[in-house]
Amino acid sequence: MKRYFIHTFGCQMNVNDSLRMSEALSKMSYVPTPEPENADLIILNTCSIREKAEDKMLSALGRYRAVKASRGAILGVGGCVAQQEKDKLLKKVPYLDFVFGPDNIAKLPEVISRVQDARERVVETAFVDSEEYVFPRADAETSRGKVTEFVTVMKGCDNVCSFCVVPHTRGREVSRAFPEVLLEVADLARVGLREVTLIGQNVNSYQGGISFAQLLLRTAEVPGIERVRFTTSHPHDLSDELIEAFRTQPKIAPHFHLPVQCGSDRILKMMRRDYTVVQYLERLEKLRAARPGIAITTDIIVGFPGETEEEFEMTLQLTEQVRYDNQFSFVYSPRPKTGAALREKDWGPVPHEVKVARLERLQKVQRRISGEYTQAQVGLDVEVMVEGRSRYDATKRFGRTPENRTVNFDGDAPAGSFVTVHIERATPNQLQGKQVAVLKEPTVAPLPVELTVPLHVPAEA
């Protein structure tokens, strides 16, 4: 049997896309290998959100060139850099066999066949029209044995923030019909999954026949599903209805990733973010009132063009005020075709060393706050969904709390169990402890075939 290796860069959407690629390859009699040196097919699934994304891809391709030379392996590039660069990649990398964009995962078998049989170098990067787009669907059987899985509910973004390349690499927003989402979740639950994460570039702008809040509530009602998560969100889509869903449905996990990007209203306006800091805080206050103890995480860009020291201090103050559980912070880097990249010289680029120094200051503050949150858990008993063995110590188990905090612990409960763990130690990034009780055993698959969640559109929708 032929073997494949997928090198995934970037976000959860890319991780999900790689899973769908794997399923397509398994139907072609390919099997995965953890070692690229043993692969007959190597795919780089790329991300173009951060600086030097193309350089990282080219560096990896250089390493895999030796595998192509020694084994005759096929080399392909997918994802956002592929969509961004298109046929230019084939000119830049003469030993590259094919390039395909995120909309063309379903064509992967056809692309590989053309490379193998017709000896073509192939480019498939056309966006699929909204009316014709077919969302990649998780194959439940390949998820058997897992505890948690991603489910795509929409793709693309219509916001066109001045720093973001997503509209150019993922296209306009397209939402998946809600019956398809619920049927996929039900299929996953039948093979034992306990948690699903609904994903999309701008997930809570979902328009698949019902509101996103209604989709969350329906998903939580699928038999066997115990936790529902989602990512990523835009503050202007944090509606009262969505906040109310957090209040009424405990299976919606108490964790919300709500990117703020900056603490300065002037910079937010330049970023084309259509909210002020005050409006962001008002939404957040309502959410925390509806779900006390909810963990809030965020994204922050440091050193956006024109950012002054005073405006950076506003971001530090916002971090202290909100007290995020965690944040993903990065220095600004210009992305192709974006408004900020085109106007950076006019707005005033921030020197790289200043951006790095500011980022280090911000991350130091966040590490302290994250550590205070985790230290407050020491001595408490927390609920953990067991996902398997710890990556750091095979004798321990690994799982997450409802707030999405990582826990490594001594215990013997199988994956899919819900257990109580007594927390004994903590770092800013994880909790450690020991299992003291089993709350729920894994589900017994298969669950009843009938889907009990109603699929009709309510009259008020």
Automatic annotation (TrEMBL):
Location of the TRAM domain: 375-437
Keyword Nucleotide-binding: no
Superkingdom to which the source organism belongs: Bacteria
Natural source organism: Corallococcus llansteffanensis
Keywords carried by this UniProt record: 4Fe-4S, Cytoplasm, Iron, Iron-sulfur, Metal-binding, S-adenosyl-L-methionine, Transferase, tRNA processing
Protein name (Swiss-Prot/TrEMBL): tRNA-2-methylthio-N(6)-dimethylallyladenosine synthase
Quaternary assembly: Monomer.
Entry's Gene Ontology cellular component terms: cytosol
Binding note for cofactor: Binds 2 [4Fe-4S] clusters. One cluster is coordinated with 3 cysteines and an exchangeable S-adenosyl-L-methionine.
Enzyme Commission code: 2.8.4.3
Predominant cellular place of this UniProt entry's protein: cytoplasm
Alphabetical list of SUPFAM superfamilies matching this protein: Radical SAM enzymes
Catalytically driven reaction(s): N(6)-dimethylallyladenosine(37) in tRNA + (sulfur carrier)-SH + AH2 + 2 S-adenosyl-L-methionine = 2-methylsulfanyl-N(6)-dimethylallyladenosine(37) in tRNA + (sulfur carrier)-H + 5'-deoxyadenosine + L-methionine + A + S-adenosyl-L-homocysteine + 2 H(+)
Annotated compartments: Cytoplasm
Family: Belongs to the methylthiotransferase family. MiaB subfamily.
Annotated binding of [4Fe-4S] cluster 2, by residue: C157, C161, C164
InterPro entries per record: Elp3/MiaA/NifB-like_rSAM, Methylthiotransferase, Methylthiotransferase_CS, Methylthiotransferase_N, Methylthiotransferase_N_sf, MiaB_methiolase, rSAM, rSAM_horseshoe
Cofactor(s) listed: [4Fe-4S] cluster
All residue ranges annotated as the MTTase N-terminal domain in the record: 2-117
GO MF, one annotated term: 4 iron, 4 sulfur cluster binding
